[in-house]
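Could you please consider the sequence and fold following this short note?
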Amino acid sequence: MNMLEKAYGDKVMKKTAMYKWFSRFQNGQETVTDEARSGRPQSITSRHVRHIKELLDKDRRITIREISERVDYSVGTVHSIIHEELHMRRLCARWIPKMLSDAQKEQRVECCARFVRRFEREGEAFIRRIVTVDETWISLYEPETKEQSTMWKTQGSPSPKKFKVSKSTKKQMFIVFFDVNGVILSHAVPQGQTVTAQYYSKVN
């Protein structure tokens, strides 16, 4: 922001305006002006809001630009309806480890309830007898993250640079057993081996 103020002085765009345009571009807008086209509404009505809501209900991944082209409303009008009338915003899908069915969810609730009842009866002794297991793929080479590559620099020194390095294409699967105190066994699965219940029983 300081660099922009030095370059443009009093004509620099305010922070709030920057955030506004950043949000619009992120939602699919590609220009800073609305091109005039016939049939575009001059004022927003309940019909316009209902029309756009129907499109969003059918496809939650549709962009503002795509909506504008379908309904013949300006990008600015579509943006205003979505954000100010429908109070919606575009978000990335949240990553979750597994998509469980209703039956699997019920099974987990039942298991957890049994664990709680046993803990109430047996206390810490029950927790210390639990051994759990998980599988994970480990790349043979993991490049450092952006955070790991940060370093301090003075105002006049050049910015640090680094070459782009991809993860190793070769990976190794590990089966890890652990209890309340930590890892008790780490097993490297041979290449090409299918992990089944029978294979688990042989790991020791």
